[in-house]
Specification:
This protein is α+β, with helices and mostly antiparallel strands. The protein contains 8 helices and 19 strands. It holds the Pfam family TGFb_propeptide.
C-alpha cells in the first residue's frame, strides 16, 4: 500500500536531536496525541525527494516569480475545479464564476490530470487577415503517455454598450497551419453570441491540441475571428465585440486560457529513480545501526502500539513546512494516516476483520509457531488532489489514487 510505504519511508528519517525548528512530519505518539517530529535538513531533503517521486514528479517545479499569476484566470478556474472535486458528487454544486456545467463536471470526474495554459505572447509572422487576434499556448509540459479526454479554450466577453441595437455575433476559432502558404487557417470551432453578452465563451480545441502535442513544431497557435451574424458581414476587431484576448494589468482574471483533461493510463504506477534506490539502501543501513542513535521515538511508540488493537493513526506531511507553498496552491499538506496495532483474539467489530482473519486468529491460537496473526492494514483508501504550478504560466490539478487511509482492519 502506498500509505504504508510512505510511513516506512518517513519513519527512518525521524530523529529528536535535530536543530532545525521547522518540521514536515506530524504523527501519533502512541498515546492518542499528535506530536511534531523534527527532521534534519538532509533528512528533509530526502523526504522531499521521496514525496516528489511518490507524486510522479522527477523534480520540484520552477518557482512562480510573478505573484499576480496566482490571481489569473487559469489558476482561479482550477481552484474552482479543485473545490468541486472535494464536494460530494451527489451534492456537488455547478455554481461557479466559470459556469461549470454538466459536461465540465463529467470531464472532471473522468480525468486524473487537468492542466491549464495561459495565453502567451509568441512572435510569429502574421496571417493575411489580422483583424482578429492570434493566440499561442506553450504545451511542452504535457506529460507523455496520457490519454486526452478533451481540451477547451475559454475567452471572456465583456458587454459592448456601444453596439446598438443588440447585435448577434459569430466568433470563429481557427488553427494556424501555415503563415506563408496557401492553406493558412483551418476552422476549429465557432460560438454564437451577442454584443450584450457578458461571460466566458467555450471552444473545443481537442483536435488542435492533440496535433501540437504529437508534432510540437506544428504549434503555430490559433486565430480568433469575429463577424456580425449577417450575410456577407465583414470581419470586425475582437475588441469591438468585447473579447478579452490579452492580459493587461488588472485584467489577469479575464485573460484567455486553455484547459486540457487527461486520463492516466497507469495511475497507480510510480517511477522509481536511481536516487530512490540509493536512499532505500541508506535507510536499510540506518535501520541496522539504529541502536547507535540516542533516542528514536518511533521505536518506543511501536512498542506501545503493539499492545493496542488495530486502528487508524495520524500521519501528516506539511507542504508549508517543506516551503512548497510557492508552487503548491492547495492543499497545505498531505494527511496520509496509517494503520497500526494488534489483531488479537477476540477480533471485535471495530477491527473490521475479514472472515479469513477470524479463522486465521483461531488457528494462530492453536498453533502460534505455524500460523501468524492477521495484519492490521487499510480497508479503505481515498484519493487526494494537488493543485500546483507546473511552471510560471501553467497550472496542473492532479488526482493521486489510494493516497489516504480512511479506515483500518485485520486481514
Amino acid at each position: 500500500m502506498i500509505c504504508a510505504k510512505l510511513f516506512l519511508i518517513l519513519s527512518f528519517f525521524v530523529l529528536m536531536d535535530c536543530k532545525d525548528p521547522r518540521t514536515a512530519l506530524y504523527m501519533d505518539n502512541g498515546f492518542d496525541q499528535t506530536t511534531v517530529y523534527p527532521l534534519s535538513r538532509q533528512e528533509k531533503r530526502e523526504v522531499e525527494h521521496e514525496i516528489l517521486n511518490l507524486l510522479g514528479l522527477s523534480a520540484r517545479p520552477r518557482h512562480v516569480t510573478n505573484s499576480t499569476l496566482k490571481g489569473g484566470s487559469a489558476p482561479r478556474f482550477l481552484l474552482d475545479v479543485y473545490k468541486s472535486m472535494l464536494d460530494n458528487p451527489r451534492s456537488r454544486s455547478t455554481r461557479s464564476e466559470f459556469n461549470l456545467g454538466g459536461r465540465d463536471l463529467q470531464s472532471i470526474d473522468e480525468s486524473d490530470v487537468i492542466m491549464s495554459f495561459s495565453s502567451l505572447y509568441h512572435h510569429v509572422s502574421g496571417v493575411r487577415h489580422e483583424r482578429g487576434k492570434r493566440l499561442w499556448f506553450d504545451v511542452s509540459e504535457v506529460p507523455a503517455g496520457e490519454t486526452i479526454v478533451g481540451v477547451e479554450l475559454r475567452i471572456y466577453q465583456m458587454t459592448n454598450v456601444s453596439i446598438k441595437p443588440v447585435t448577434g455575433l459569430v466568433v470563429t476559432l481557427y488553427q494556424v497551419l501555415d503563415t506563408d502558404g496557401e492553406r493558412e487557417l483551418e476552422v476549429v470551432d465557432s460560438v454564437n453570441t451577442t454584443s450584450s453578452n457578458e461571460g466566458w465563451l467555450l471552444f473545443n480545441v481537442t483536435r488542435a491540441f492533440a496535433s501540437w502535442v504529437a508534432i510540437p513544431s506544428s504549434n503555430k497557435g490559433l486565430y480568433l475571428s469575429v463577424h456580425l451574424n449577417t450575410r456577407n458581414a465583414h470581419e470586425m476587431r475582437t475588441e469591438e465585440a468585447g473579447l478579452v484576448t490579452t492580459a493587461t494589468p488588472g485584467s489577469e482574471e479575464r485573460q484567455p486560457f486553455m484547459v486540457a483533461f487527461f486520463k492516466a493510463k497507469n495511475p497507480e504506477k510510480r517511477v522509481r529513480s536511481r536516487r530512490t534506490r540509493e536512499a532505500e539502501r541508506r535507510r536499510r543501513k540506518k535501520s541496522n545501526d539504529e541502536s547507535s542513535y540516542p533516542h528514536n521515538p518511533l521505536l518506543s511508540t511501536a512498542q506501545h502500539l503493539s499492545a493496542r488493537s488495530c486502528q487508524l493513526q495520524t500521519l501528516y506531511v506539511s507542504f508549508q513546512d517543506l516551503a512548497w507553498q510557492d508552487w503548491i496552491i492547495s492543499p497545505d499538506g498531505y494527511g496520509a494516516s496509517y494503520c497500526s496495532g494488534e489483531c488479537n483474539f477476540p477480533l471485535n467489530a471495530h477491527m473490521n476483520a475479514t472472515n479469513h482473519a477470524i479463522v486465521q486468529t483461531l488457528v494462530h491460537l492453536m498453533s502460534p509457531s505455524s500460523v501468524p496473526k492477521p495484519c492490521c492494514a487499510p480497508t479503505k483508501l481515498q484519493s487526494i488532489y494537488v493543485l500546483y504550478h507546473t511552471d510560471p504560466y501553467s497550472v496542473t490539478l492532479k488526482k493521486y489514487h489510494n493516497m489516504v487511509v480512511k479506515s483500518c482492519g485485520c486481514h
